[in-house]
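Record pair follows.
FIRST:
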Amino acid sequence: MRPSSIALPVLLVTLGMVFTQTGASFAKLLFPLVGAQGATALRLTLAALVLVLVFRPWRYRLDKKQWRAVLLYGGAMGAMNLFFYAALEHIPLGIAVALEFTGPLAVALFGARRPLDFFWIVLALAGFALLLPWNDASGELSPIGIVLALCAGACWAGYIIFGQRAGQSGENGGGGPHIAALGVATAAMIALPFGAASAVPALFDPSILLLGLGVALLSSAIPYALDMVALPHIPARLFGILMSGQPAFAALSGLVILNEVLGLSQVAGIAAIMAASIGATITIARRPPPPVA
């Protein structure tokens, strides 16, 4: 794939990360009102309504193979959100995202071939390690939160894999925002029972609905649509390594919105992760195509 053809998908993925972490920071405001499960259900349900109304997926015909991929994609998305927001009840945003990143990093590691690819992965791992509070704060991390964040990471890996399958399968062989709409709708149906069981009356409060709509647009509707447009046109390995920017964006969003102070090691971790993302983008995008047999 030529650099000119991959530049737009890379930009879309980057914008999606910015929106995702900004929305995650604002979503913490919902926790005292509706809890983690209620915030998840509100975020995904409102995002699904927006995406379905805008992109009208009923106009597209999907075959059985693509429907199966869409359901797996949406299922992974729903479970990822439930695990992630549950983890945020126990551990900080930046640490939760760093632990969740083990999923896309595993996708990147699985697809690695050249020594240079492993160098970027090792650099991203070093940044990941620097973001974790190994010193005084490490003893305060909840084991439950760590396990929940790692489960979210496993679902994140499934989101990448099944998202590509959903976008590439079918008669037309292409994805689009309508696939994201179907995926988010599936995820919402998975999360809604959990949210309804914990915060039904509060979910219909107009002020909470307005805040939830903003969170849904920032952290679900916009980034999922951008990802679905980009995923069919970007290698899974490159997408996985680009996701290494998520902990950095989460830490920066926490600093700006939640007033979370960063230590020197966390700043170094952000720099290492961003360097790995940029390096992987440059080297993989410029890799020459395989010779024609």
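SECOND:
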Amino acid sequence: MTDFRTIATGLSFPEGPVAMPDGTIALVEIERQTVTRVHPDGRTDIIAHTGGGPNGMALGPDGAFYICNNGGFGWRREHGLLRPIIQASDYTSGSIQRVDPATGKTDLLFDNCNGHKLRGPNDIVFDAHGGFYFSDLGKSRARDRDHGGLYYALADGSKIVEVAYPILTPNGVGLSPDGSVVYVAETETARLWAFDITAPGVVRKNPFPSPHGGRLIAGLGGYQRFDSLAVDALGNICIATLITGAVTSFAPDGTILRQVKFPDPMTTNICFGGPDLRTAYVTLSGTGRLVALPWPEPGLKLNHAA
């Protein structure tokens, strides 16, 4: 098992970690419906109460947090693990929210695209043009589910467009170091897709048999599922991998470089911080922990990161 240090415990399904310049980690607690600051000594402060289900999070060009809110899950705790199940009983829709990190003021930015309601926004990454790509996982109920997709929007709220649709449970989203490729990880299939960007929010679509225009980069065998992802400075794609409880690192050509195991089957997110971005922060969501460990490659500096 991987050697790591535990920074915080007792979190309510943490995801969306963001390494802040003051050494703290901002993240969401999906079950608690909060944006939370974690200090290096493990203390936590609540930044904002978002309602619904805050999921992915990123710093925008204005220094605010942009939240993918999935609208809420039902929850189950068993065998010492907390995990989300189907759509929450009080669910209305998914949304993109803007949170002021100083005051906690939370504003709705988008809840639909061209009249189609967002179902379960999940993960987010900003480009260099003031816009962001985000995945919508869709939403599942006891006997049916909604499709998911990949979207692009501007931080000022003036534009949102559908980039690729439908995608089966799209989760993690990240950009290549040169900004020419957007990666999407599919949860249920454990497949990694790439979309070649031709202009902000526009991608080149590959023909059938691609189900949505993306290029298949890699997939995993057995029962494994993909969650969020982060890209390192060399362009490798590091994907939190559910069930096996790991972070799987892929080269851009799909070669598996390593799989780093953790003692939690709900290993959900990774981000990079610390000196030279060589520290990986990983959310072990089922057991409510934020952990850290040295990473062999430095992380990619995100657009608009302080």
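COMMENT: The chain has one domain: 5-294.
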